[in-house]
Specification:
With 204 residues, the chain is an alpha+beta fold. The chain folds into two domains: 40 residues, no CATH class; 122 residues, no CATH class. It is built from five helices and eight strands; from the N terminus they run ααααββββαββββ. The protein has a four-stranded antiparallel β-sheet. The protein has a four-stranded antiparallel β-sheet with strand order 5-6-7-8, with no helix packed on it. Helix 2 crosses helix 3 and helix 3 packs parallel to helix 4. The longest helix is centred in the first third of the chain and has 23 residues. The chain is globular, with a radius of gyration of 34 Å. The N and C termini lie far apart (118 Å). About 2% of the residues have low confidence.
Length: 204
């Protein structure tokens, strides 16, 4: 074998070795870990959907908190759609159930509600209505639908030609919540006249 032939053979062996090394040691695309998406904090996610909402409101919404200065849309984002809505003069009132989470379900607090007052579509005040602790004398003369709006449905209703009787019973689980301080009785009875207006009340 001539010198030129030996040189060509050596070069051929070197090329084959390089090709083999490239095929066996080159990084595989499957070995490159995928870049996982970073979780976006709830408040930032809310602001991304509503760029005109201030971040401090978005943080409260993410925590399920409603405060004065929020718009109606912010209230709905935080608490969902209201159970009822009422307009009186320049104010719009949104009524919400108060519920206590228990394991896999929630227990509605009888006679207790959150009421949001809006003026010009902005939260002006927040009311925690509690039939077991609030002064009900100011409600005498009010119709049934107003009582229903601000205190929710009773546990029992007795219909009578002389006037209906509503009975509210304190929910046991609600006594364990922060509203327990406002529950000063176990039962409240409301007595309506024939026209459906509150005539008297009693706590037991």
């Amino acid at each position: 074998m001539s010198g030129e032939e030996r040189l060509n053979l050596i070069l051929g062996i070197v090329v084959l070795a390089l090709v083999w090394a490239f095929l066996h040691f080159a990084p595989s695309s499957r070995a490159i870990p995928a870049v996982e998406s970073v979780p976006v904090p709830a408040a930032i996610e809310i602001q991304q959907r509503h760029p005109d909402w201030p971040i401090h409101y978005c943080q409260r919404i993410a925590n399920g908190i409603v405060s004065t200065g929020m718009t109606r849309d912010m209230v709905v984002e935080a608490w969902g759609s209201p159970t009822q809505q009422l307009q009186q003069g320049n104010s719009v009132y949104l009524s919400y159930d108060v519920s206590i989470p228990i394991a896999d379900f929630t227990s509605r607090c009888c006679g207790v509600r959150n009421v949001v007052e809006l003026q010009r579509n902005v939260v002006n005040s927040l009311l925690r209505m509690n039939i077991f602790g609030d002064n009900l004398d100011s409600w005498v003369g009010q119709p049934e639908n107003m009582i229903l709006f601000f205190f929710g449905p009773p546990a029992e209703t007795l219909e009578s030609s002389a006037g209906n009787v509503w009975t509210y019973e304190a929910t046991p689980f609600c006594r364990l919540n922060d509203i327990a301080a406002g529950i000063t009785a176990d039962t409240v009875g409301l007595y309506f006249d024939r026209d459906g207006n509150l005539r008297s009340w009693i706590r037991q």
